[in-house]
Structure formats: structure tokens, C-alpha cells
Amino acid sequence: MLKPSDSGKNQHLAYLLLPEGEELFNLQNNHNMTITWKDYPVNGYFDELISFEGEPRSGAELLLKHLDGMTETELQERKAAADAAILGMGITFTVYSENEGSIDRAWPFDIIPRIITLREWRRIEQGLKQRVKALNLFIDDIYHDQKIVKDGVFPGELLVDSKNFRPECVGVNPPQGIWAHVCGSDLVRDHEGTVYVLEDNLRVPSGVSYMLENRLVLKRVLPELFEDYTIVPVDDYPSQLYQCLSSLAIDKKWPNVVVLTPGIYNSAYFEHCYLAQQMGVELVEGKDLVVNDDDCVYMRTIEGLAKVDVIYRRIDDLFLDPEAFLPDSALGVPGLLRAWKKGNVALANAPGAGVADDKVVYTYVPDIIRYYLGEEAILPNVPSFRCVNPDECEYVLANLDKLVVKPANESGGYGMLIGPKASQEELDEFSKLIRNDPRNYMAQPLLLLSTAPTLIGDKVEPRHLDLRPFVLSGQQTYVTNGGLTRVALKKGSTVVNSSQGGGSKDTWIVDWEGE
Amino acid sequence: MAMLSRVAEHLYWMARYLERAENTARLVNVNGSMILDLPKHVRPGWSSLISITGADETFYKHYPSAAEGHVVKFMLADDENPGSILSSIRSARENARTIRDIIPREAWEQINELHLKARENLASGLSPKWRHAFLSEVILSVQMISGILNEGMSHDDGHKFMNIGCNLERADMTTRIIDVRSLNLSQKDQADALKPFENILWMSVLKSLTAWQMYRRHMQASVSRDAVLKFLLQDHQFPRAFRFCLDKVENYLGRLPHSEAVLQALSPLKSQIDAANPEQLVQNELMEYIDQLQIMLGDIHIAIGKNYFGEVEEGQSQTQSH
């Protein structure tokens, strides 16, 4: 029997499919009737708020009781208030469509929060710190001696084909040896309640501003929920980010930190703006910056040029510097890489950091942690098959209709195959794709993602969700208290990306020991 | 840290567009009420609003006549008219969106809200019955936004660019309003019939600039062409008087770094306005004089662009053509 590369007790997941035809849970039409959680269809999934027996999970008791006490009209009123707040505050994300160009859409938000107890969170936090520490050591090693390759733990040939390995970065020493200063790792929970890391985003992970705004909106529209709970606040993220970034200009007391955005048409422009505003630093576009003959970076101001020390760049590697990468990129700054290599400016994340968020590299992370830290991973990977290994590839091809296939370097949920839901044409197409370029694909069993009660129309229904916490690595390591919970609003769907119909929830880390 | 040139430019334009939205709302409001004060056969109608904004060409390309419904639609909602209230608000919002990190959060939220509300309530703005309420709401919203901006934002260089933009736009609108009412009174077919109602026209000029009350207090004169012109062009204390706006622009410029070149462009305009004796100018001389003022305002705009923004973006340059 062939085992997934990072095999474990959950191997059988590969053969479980989503149950069809969930019963909908209807809120009665009578406006005075309230929610009866006993009727909520848990359906074999792990629900974040309600146990298999229909009882509230630890920490969720008061929340459910409170929701119980609200009439449908009240719930709808709060929902409408939240929507109005989001529209009024201009919390948006931008989507592209071929017909309509780019559209600014209101951020989809569900008013029922997701709860994680502080005790569980502390363990996840440790796991994330461990993981990001190892990933940074890995990246630094890859761009220097490649000891991990020489020691036979990581196959060097994977680097040759890696889209995110940047030969330009070999031998560069970024401050403190850190490459991925901001990491967003996606966590999911399976039907047994185990939390897995689904993927790491080490290039320009986004979503943190929505985490902050979700809290703000929920405090506005359901303040009474907060009264009974001790919820760990999330709003120190901008100060932590600022501290992390300014720690990269070691010799400067008041470094000039800027956020570099591709501009208002980028899907995450709202966030770029938000973070610059919250940190009190300039938001710049490529055309605002210039690299002079002294190989230092300057911004154009009304008083002439001013030196820039740290750039939190939200532009992909290849667009950063037309001199070094794509020559026709109008978003970047000519000479930026040169300035960075000379140590005249710090870039966060460092160019080339994406080598470690390749989905095939992902499958090696438990080995990477073991290799650099001599520890076992606290947070498990989702068991994965590497198509680059011929026997694993054969298995994947034979079981395509049961697996989720991911290309190595796509993000945002694009280019994925969800086997159990795919048509025969799609299966055939992926078969061909994988055979032509096995290195570019990995496969995972379709996880039975956990659910949480979500207000859909006038009903409360279970919807699948994930969690993206953010990890900052500078002089210190910081993990957000919770993260961005994304929820697939379409029934039965597990695609949570906002560009593809995903919504979001406020994420509560509650100090609650069940007393 | 010195301000980014791009940010300075967005602040300048955001302020100009907000001011333009408010001014246009005032203009439509006052024209509506003035017409009701005039006997049917001498009503100058709505076409002068089109002339004020210098949009004759665009307007007549799309509308068969200057009937009330057409003009109001054009002034409030037409996307083809970059000076329409909705277009101005949208442009203000686009500029604000690009500098969301610079302006107070509440200001962005109110600009965004104004944008959404104005679109949503447009139908009432187009119905004569609800027009006044719609326009008042726009005016009040802009005033609230400028309150939040002025009281919530540090009075740094960005604040100065904002206020320079606002005051240049305001000065420009003041000259336009004077220009058109003069036009009404100088046109051969209208002039004689309107003569007895001249004061009503000048009163409407004052009202469209919310200058009526202050004019009464400070000029202590009945409404007359000469006194109104003197007040609106040369008064140093009334915020919508041309000279007051210039003082403001000069004051803010003087506190910006390296402003010598722009101040130089400003000084001939100051002398021009101080030396003038508008009451001695007959109607068509007055119109020529006003044209000169507008051209000189344009020069200041260009000098600011050259000095601080690198260059003036074509797309945003004076959409109200001179």
C-alpha cells in the first residue's frame, strides 16, 4: 500500500468524500421563534461551535445562548447593520472580470464569530512560530550553502524547476538572516478536530486588514456579545508590523519605512492603504521611488528626494525591478534589487522568499523542521502526494477523482482540481497536465473541512471554513491572535477565497476554561 | 518626512472636486429658486448654468434643449459632464481612495458615504419636489467632510495643498457665477426685459455663494450691481470672495517649502484684483475682466503643478474649460 509522503494516522481521509444532500436548518418563519441548536445539522463534520451531540463546544456556550435569544428580525437587523458598516467604511476588495474590468466589492462578512479557546490557540501559536523559524532557516540555507541538499534531506533538483527560486538572490545576506518577515499560513481542521497546515504564503500574503476590520465591525453591530467574554484583542498587529519592519534597519533610530503597492487596481489595495495608515508610514507606488547612482532608494517628495530604509513591498518578485526581472514591469523600481543586495534598503519579504511556499516544497516542511530545529512539527501537514515521485504520481493519476490536485506555484485557489467534484473532461485535462509536468503538481486527499454556523439568507447553516493567521519575524516573532477566518458561502463548497465567493468571520480567541 | 508629490496632488484634487460638487449644488439650488421670483416672460431659464460651467459643447451634443429637466440632469448626474455633482463626488472619492492612508478615516468614510448616498438618492434629486433636499444634503455633507478634514488632520503640508485646491476652485466658481449673471444682463434680447429685476438677479448671485447674509451685515447697502461686485471680488473677510480665496492661497503657499515660483504667479493676479474698479466697468468690459482673472487662476494652477507635482496630469486638468 502506497503511503502519502507525510503519512500519518489520517491516511484514510483519502477515501472519504463529502456527503451529499445536507439537510438545511431552517429558522422558523415565526419571528418570535429562536434558534434551536439541537436541530443544527452537524452531519459528520467537525463544527467549530457545536459538538456532534448538538451541544455547544467549550467557549461557545454563551455565544449560542445569546444567539438563541435573538429573533430572526433581530439577527437580520444586525446583519444589515454589518453590511451597511462595511459599505460605509469602504471595506472592499477588487475582483477582475474579463467583461467588466476591475470592480470594487464590499467585503463579505458573517456576523456569527468563530471561537477558538486560548489553550488550543497557544499550541497552534507555538506550532506556527516553529514552522516559520524553520522556513526562514531553509530559505537562508538554500541561497547559501544548501546544506540541506548536501545532507540528502531535500532534493536539489526541485530548485532547478522552482518558479520562485531566484538565482539573483544567491549569496545575499538580508538583515538577521530573515527572508520571510510576514507569513500567512492557512490552517484547516478535519472531521476529527485535528488542525493541519494547508499551505504557507511567504510572498505577499494578504488578508490581515480584514481580520482587523472584522473585529471592528462586529464590535459595532453586536457589542453585547463581547460583554460576557474575555476575547484577546487583535488590534496591535499594525504596531507589531511596524516594529518588525523598522527592526530591519538596524542602524537607524527612525528609519523611513514605506509600503509599496501596485496601485488602486490591485485586489488588495484596500489592505495596502490600511496598513500604511495604521502604521503611519507612506504608501508609495513604484513611480514614487527612484534608485540613484549611490544605489540607495529615494522617494519623490514635494521637497525633493528623501531616503527610504525599509520597503514593505506588496508587489510580486518579478514585478519589483524591471532591471533585474520582467523588463516591461511598470509597477516596480529600476535598480531596487541592486540597492537591496548592497544592503542599502531592506525588503520585506525578501525577494526569493517564495521558494519555500512552493506547494511541492510544502510537502518537505516536516523534514525541514526536523533538519534545522531537531524537533518534530507541532502542527501536522496535510498528507500529500508528490507527483515528482513516479510511484506517487501513478497513485495520483489512478485516484484523481478522489484527490485535490494543486499546482506548485498558484495562489488564490486558481489552477486547482477538486477531484470528487470534477467532470470527466477536467479529470482528463489534469491527467495530461500532471504527466507533462509532474514536478509542478502535488495532491492531497479531500479533507472534510470543519464548519461553523453561518447566516445564509434567513437561515443558519453550516459552512466550511479555514483560518489564516499571520506570523511576523523580525528581532522577535509575533503571531496574530487568531487570524482571518474565511468561509465558503456556497453550500458544500470548500473554496474560501474571496475572489471566488468566499466570506469571512470574526475569529475569537477566548480565555475560557469551561468554568 | 516630506510629503510625496503624488499624495500632495491627490489631496489638492480631492479638495477641488469636493468644492466643485458643493458649488454645483448651490448653483442649481439657487437658480431654481430665483426663477420662481421672476415673472414668467423674463425668466432667463436654465441655460446659463451650462454656460457657467463652460460645458455648452458637451451639453448640446447630448440634449435637444436647455429645458429644466435636461439641465438639472446634466448638472447633477451626467457622466459625460465631468463637473456634474455625481462626477465630482466620484472623482473626489477616487482621489481620496488613493490617499486613504493620509486622510482621517472618518473623512474617507464620509466621502464614500456621500458617493453611495448621492447615487442612491439621485431620483429624488431629479424630481423638482425633492431637489432642494437632495442638494442641501450634498452641500451639508461636503461641509461636514471639510470640517472633518480641517479639524481631524494635522495642519501639515498635505493640509495646505488641500486648502489651496479648495480655495482656487472656490475663486474660480465665484468668477463664473458673476460672469453668467452679467451675461444675462448684457444679452440684447434679455437685457431690457430683465432690467427691472436686476436686483433679484444680483441677489441670486449672493445667495448661490451663501453671501447674502454677510453682504447685508458688511456692506450695509441695498443690493446693487456695484456693491455686489465689490463685495464678491475684493472683500478680505468673506470666505467666498475672490480676494479672500487669494489671501488663503497665498497664505498656505507661503508656508510650503520652495513656493517662490508659485507666489510669483500669484502676485499679478493680486494687483489685478486690487487695482480694479469693477463698478466702472460696463457689462462687456466686466466679462473681459473676469476672463482675465480666470486665465490667471489657471496660471497659478499650472505653476503649482510644475513646482510640486512634477507635471499636471492631463486627465484632471481644468475640466471646466476656460
Describe what you observe in this structure.
The complex is a heterodimer of chains A (515) and B (322). With 515 residues, chain A is α+β, with helices and mostly antiparallel strands. Chain A is built from 15 helices and 22 strands. In chain A, helix 2 packs across helix 6 and helix 3 crosses helix 13. The longest helix of chain A is centred in the N-terminal third of the chain and has 25 residues. The N and C termini of chain A lie far apart (47 Å). In chain A, 50% of the residues are buried. Chain B has 322 residues and is mainly α. Chain B has one domain. The longest helix of chain B is centred in the N-terminal third of the chain and has 33 residues. The two termini of chain B are 37 Å apart. At the A-B interface, helix 9, strand 7 and strand 9 of A face helix 1, helix 5 and helix 6 of B.
Helix content of chain A: 25-40%
Mean pLDDT over the full residue set of chain A: 87
> Could you name the ranges of chain A where pLDDT drops below 50 across 5 or more consecutive residues?
1-33
Biggest β-sheet description of chain B: none
Order of helices and strands of chain B: HHHHHHHHHHHHHHHH
| Main structural class of chain B | mainly alpha
Oligomer: heterodimer
N-to-C CA distance of chain B: 37 Å
Total beta-strand segments of chain A: 22
Structural class of chain A: alpha+beta
Number of domains of chain B: 1
**Number of continuous helical runs of chain B:** 16
* Averaged pLDDT of chain B: 88
Radius of gyration of chain B: 19 Å
Largest sheet of chain A: 5 strands, mixed
